Amino acid sequence: MARDVGALINKTLDGVKMLHHDEMRNFDRIQSKLTQVIMSHGCKIIETPSFEDYDVYQHYFPQLRRQMVKTIDTDGRVLVLRPDVTMPLVETAAREFPRPDQLLKFGYVSTVFREYFGRSTYGKDFQQGGIEILGDASPECDGEVIVTAVEMLKAVGVEHIRIDIGTAAYTKALFDGLALEEEEKTTLQTYMAERNIVAYNRYLSTLTLQGEARSALAAMPILFGPYEETLEKARRFCINSNMRNALARLERIYAYIQCAGYADCVQLDFGFTGHLGYYTDMIFKVYIDGALYDVIDGGRYDTLSKRFGVDRPACGFGININLLYEYMSDAGLLEDTEPSFQLAVSYSTSDKALIQDLVKWRKKGYRVAAYPASSFLDSGDYSIHALYKDGQYYKDGKAVEVAELETMMRGL
Known about the structure:
- The protein has helices spanning about 1-10, 20-40, 55-60, 85-95, 140-155, 170-175, 180-195, 195-205, 210-220, 225-235, 240-260, 320-330, 350-365, 400-410; strands at about 45, 50-55, 70, 80, 105-110, 115, 120-125, 125-135, 160-165, 225, 265-270, 280-290, 295-300, 315-320, 340-345, 370, 380-390, 390-395, 400.
- It has about 400 residues and is of the alpha+beta class.
- β6 and β7 (about 120-125) form a beta hairpin.
- α6 packs antiparallel against α11.
């Protein structure tokens, strides 16, 4: 039995860890600031269900199957722990708010259950914050969504930001105008989504395409860079009106961002796609301080709600708060933490007077811990230590009164 217990103690799940007191306090501060920004844009704070039907995700988002955490309910149905917030939010909104032209602005901070990788962190779940705006099809809505994302990072002290904006509508219009088999289009799109430029170009060379269509396809994976320069290149590769319309919408989105004062942060990237696969137009990612991974991604998804019976446009984003925390820790942006207790009282024997003092202090808002003198307490967990013995408090070997201890705690 002892051997089995020892084996169990030494067995840990990869990517699973406990958050400690200091981390929890900083996470709470970050989430509070993000929520303030969300609410400043008129979004209602919501929480989506933790469990979702596995069949819904398998049908609509098969690319998530390997990342999902599955379980079985009491009726034998296969459920998944929420791997995404957008899908259950849209599904629930379609059921509770069936009017398609109703404007709905939601914000959230929730746990998402799928793997993530940072520079030095990895986990099977993470805190995600974000907004979803339903019922507004305008490019100005897209601009507000991007600006909200930037404001959330600014609110926690992040200054060096890059916004990469693309458009699924431009790419879709290009592929719709090509005289290719669907299988050929899918292969090209897969390589482009994977950023596998070598395989993309090799496969493109085998296809019977000529002229401007081939030129546009060859340029697509590397069509990124500063806004004005990249937009001009994208105009030259337009082979139909829908591609030109997509760029016209992108210009209006940029105009909104420019008015908000964040134009200097914008780059265009026509080569990336959203990893969840439901984006229909504008797509964006936000990077901070030269990081190789984005902390925010989102975009417009105008057809998702229709799958649940309500044809309603929508746009939104999610921010990986765990990756944000990692960056803030490295950059020294986390606030200084403080001990768990303002006062730690060790005692050899507890009595009524001690208990009443503890109750009184805690009602006044002080953080106080009492523990037997035989127990060990890390000195980093408290600011003041006192010994209680025979109805008297002692600090550093000298007797102190209750009022003196209160004055010390008040001064912290």
